[in-house]
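Sample 3 of the quickstart, ligand calcium ion:
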Amino acid sequence: MNNFKGKILLVDDRVENLELLFSILTKAGYEVRRAINGSSALMGVKSVHPDLILLDINMPDMNGYEVCRQLKKDSQHQDIPVIFISALDDGLDKMKAFSAGGVDYITKPFEMMEVLSRIENHMQIKAARTKLKDLNIELEKRVAERTLELTAATQALEQENIERRKAQAMLEHMAWHDPLTDLPNRTWLMQQLQDSIAKAKQETNYQFAVLFLDCDRFKVINDSLGHMVGDRLLVEIAHRLMNSLPSNATLARFGGDEFIVILKAIERVDDAQQLAQKLQSALASPFNIELHEMFVSASIGIVLGNFEVRHPEDLVRNADIAMYRAKALGKARYYVFNTDLYNNAQKRLQLETDLRRAIERKEFFLQYQPIVSLKSGEIEGFEALVRWNHPKRGLISPIDFVPVAEETGLIVPLGYWILEEACRQFQDLKTDLETTATSEVSQKSLSLKISVNLSAKQFSQPGLIDTIDEIFEKTDFDSKNLNLEITESVLMDDPQSNNIILKALKDRHIQLTIDDFGTGYSSLSYLHRFSVDALKIDRSFICRLAPSGDGLRIVEAMTSMAQSLGIMVVAEGVETSEQILQLQQLGCDYAQGYWFAKPLDSEAAKQLLLSCQTFNI
Ligand code: C2E
Ligand code: CA
Ligand code: CA
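Result:
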């Protein structure tokens, strides 16, 4: 048997034709189905699915053209090649045959070889077509798949793009905003100021204002309630400030508890002042955070910006200076910057710089002011007072530079220098007196006291006692000749650790005097608790001792209380003999002041000791 070559539907109304072709084709290896008229052919097609149809043209019920046309209408079968069969004398209309959809024709009587080769050709063409169609379908499928993949990839890319843009936007936001309050940050602010300055340079009438706002005593809240509460409070503050801004203002967080507002396009400084008031009243009602009710006030520095401004930093600095002024004036207020303020700040900055160098360059020296017994008139000791001989400005008063030294911490090295210098000069004086003075004077010098002022900063310095010991050792100084003057506030600060220091001082027989007594807390109870040796009544009370002044009663009260506690009383700033008399009557122990002597350099102090041991009082 031949190999199966395909299925053929044979349609002819004449049986002999059918039989003949059937046997030939079957032998040739085709599977052949037969139909004897057009309608059974159309039905047979559906069940057989032939690869080729041999179709007689002349049939009684429906001719071959019609059958072919119907077949071609049906999408399922239109691809099946149809070869028409016709007797030569039937009058084959070739045009009609092709237009009905036939691919070929064969004529009777059949030339068998020709029939087979035509059939084979068309079978091959059909197979090739089918393959092509399959390939096309496959191709289309692949195209569709690729398209799908591409669409998915494009979508993924778009999504990625969106994500990237989001991340980018977030990064940008972070670069310009403060994470806690989400307000614009310092970088942003500086940029805005730069822009405002640029605008003012273009339009010379353009004015704007910078308001530097700093919360008052915010540190206390942070220290007492913790940073979490502090942070939440800052967020609330930011919120309230934000809600009080006019449309031409922008708010930024500058750092910590500092905020800055830029008020654009203003006519007068009044506009900025009004805004400052508004911001302050926005903070006036209490804040409630985690069951804590808190009151917050702010100090605001205002500076105007116009075409004259050069750098954003200048604006911020000047607003900051004005803000500090507002704080110095009592906080919870605003202050408008002026050039005097700037000059003062400059001076102050210069002083700070000079002060740093002054320690290295040894521009300081000490003067000594005698402290005199009001009973005997004898010199009891000296208070060492620091002086600064500025290379350009000459003598600068400690009233001007000691506070700066305290704020900057320079008081610590300076204070140690003072103590060492005082101890050394005192030791020199003693040796001097031993060789030159009478034995009486020399003897007296053994019990002389040198008083040295110790600032709060120094007192809380770790290693204070060790350094004092070192100084004693270095200068061969006897510790019981030293008296330290501290202010009341020092004792109130940290009673616990103070007690340790005070005990160490007592162990060394160093005496302790409360300086400027009456100007601070003036609590006598702690004088007792801390076993203070003496208190120095502030000069402001002594100068009110005059008959019309109210100082007398106050000094009297202080003296009698001190006496009851066994504490010595020193009066400072004594300038008249009346004051001396009054102080004597009140039972005051010692006095110091211009009436006896102004602060003297070490040589003059020595001469005073040698010449006049006793004041005539
Ligand atoms: P203080 O400790 O109360 O010093 C007394 C001040 O009163 C000194 O001013 C002294 O010259 C002045 N004074 C003395 N007698 C009279 C008087 O009769 N009338 C008037 N009007 N004044 C008199 P000075 O030397 O200018 O010192 C001022 C302040 O500077 C001192 O006040 C003290 O707080 C600080 N100070 C001075 N020297 C030192 C120091 O060595 N270390 C520290 N930490 N502070 C110092
Ligand atoms: Ca003093
Ligand atoms: Ca004083």
